[in-house]
Predict the structure of Serine protease.
Amino acid sequence: MLKHPDHHLDDFEGNVLAKKFGAAIISLEHRYYGKSSPFKSSTTENLRYLSSKQALFDLAVFRQYYQNSLNAKLNRSDVENPWFVFGVSYSGALSAWFRLKFPHLTCGSLASSAVVLAVYNFTEFDKQIGVSAGPDCKATLQEITKLVENELFTDKKAVKALFGAAELKNDADFLYLLADAAVTAFQYGNPDILCTPLVEAKKGGKDLV
């Protein structure tokens, strides 16, 4: 089993299937993520090799490398183990595309919540989050966003440190981190965990940032 890392391994449903069928699970880090960046800066020129197509070929190359290494370790040749790819969200799309692009390298794919039809400038998603949040929580989140944006102009190191992101240099990445963290509460059915304490803090006149 080959899993794209959009989902924490400890919570990965494939663990159950792997144990049942005696399979090994391998999780790869996507190029340009984590420690897998070939460049030190994210300039447009340096990002030219960041694409889903490149990621698919990375996976294909790794799959062959691992299979060959396994064969050498077990002192065998020309053996092809069955490979099954898993993915969630973006990695789910990669799993589906990998199966289509390299059908000879995998016996199947499970693509959960796969983003196979991406929509450019998908503002409807943000609007739905606002509806799901309700007027009070939406207003509070908007106020927090403005406060954070203002703090980035005055003392960006301090405001990033509040969220445990002091070493994150790119302001856009930091703002995305906050937005994505908030969205997760609604996307996975736990809005009260986020909204209740924030709305209560605002009504109580407490600092939101």
